Structure prediction request, 403 residues.
Amino acid sequence: MADDEQFPSNNPAWRPATALVHGGITRSDWGETSEALHLTQGFVYKSAEQAEARFKQEDPGFQYTRFGNPTISMFEDRLKIFEGAEECRATATGMAAVTASMLSYLRTGDHVVAARALFGSCRYIVETLCPRFGIEATLVDGKDLDAWRNAVRPNTKMFFFETPSNPALELVDIAAVCKIARDNGILTIVDNVFATPMLQRPLALGADIVVYSTTKHIDGQGRCLGGAVLGKTEFITKYVQEWVRQTGPSISPFNAWVMLKGLETLPIRVKAQCETSAKIADLLAGLKGVTRVIYPGRADHPQAALAAKQMPGGGQMIAFEVEGGKQGAFRCLNALRLIRLSNNLGDAKSLVTHPATTTHFKLTPDQRSELGISDGMIRLSIGLEAVEDLADDLTNAVKRVTG
Prediction:
């Protein structure tokens, strides 16, 4: 790859929107405008000596796309520049990022503490997978700082939480929990997928590691799967890089290229989605048949003050409850004509799902109740449609709840 000294790939003075367009670019001798897609499995060497040096990491360059690739590196570099991280490693999916960040570091005999309000697959990693390897796990109320303190043991090595949580949009005080961890020599990992890097900067608030499902808002158009782990160079290279290299949850160059292009429009999309979300949340709060609206940007959110402190916007996700429990929710979902039913989120298209029967269906009724996931709850991911059309669709659908 040919570097152009006249046009650097990183400038500390760049604003976020600029860094997400120009950050991390390396061009070939052809001088392409768009980032090059290096769709290749492996790489050739000029000599046996160079091959040996590459594997010893004495010669810069690439060996095999499972280990690294120029397109993937551009995606990683751009994301780390924007996030303010020392290093980034992309993965095939968001769950691959979560698994790599946790299991590459934890060992038999260690103890992890996690907030109980987690995405179903993340909760599986903590509750089911970790104990299979002799790693103890404790789930706590993420809102309760004393619960975090009281859960610490001599062998506690990691705190893990998502904020806002999926699907009930519960918040965790990132700075406060990270301080508890730091005071006890514990590593903190934050899943920042709902807030996106546009609305929340966990590393700046004291987190050691931040993970993303880039499948969501970073891609932003429902095209490809991907994930990312960001943090200090020592952690990424010693633990995550080796895990990905040896176990293989690598992102494909094509998916990384799609994510690169997604980053370019992330600020515009998130801004528009947040503006629409605030209006839709207010609309839902005034509809007959809606019993509760949960949106971090509203004053009636139980943690509105914390949301305002650590997020400059309310986000693109809304949870609301309707009358009639599961039957009422199903009537509402089935009456929608614009908003599509899907368990995905972060798309340009607005999407809804019923968490109790999809993303969190494996939890017991008591566990769902503990997390505030009622049978009447609907999770709404706001897209880029006209707010008036979304309002009309939701208004008509909610009428079916009581009709």
About this structure: Residues 253-285 form the longest helix (33 residues). The CA atoms of residues 20 and 263 lie 6 Å apart. The chain has a mean pLDDT of 95.
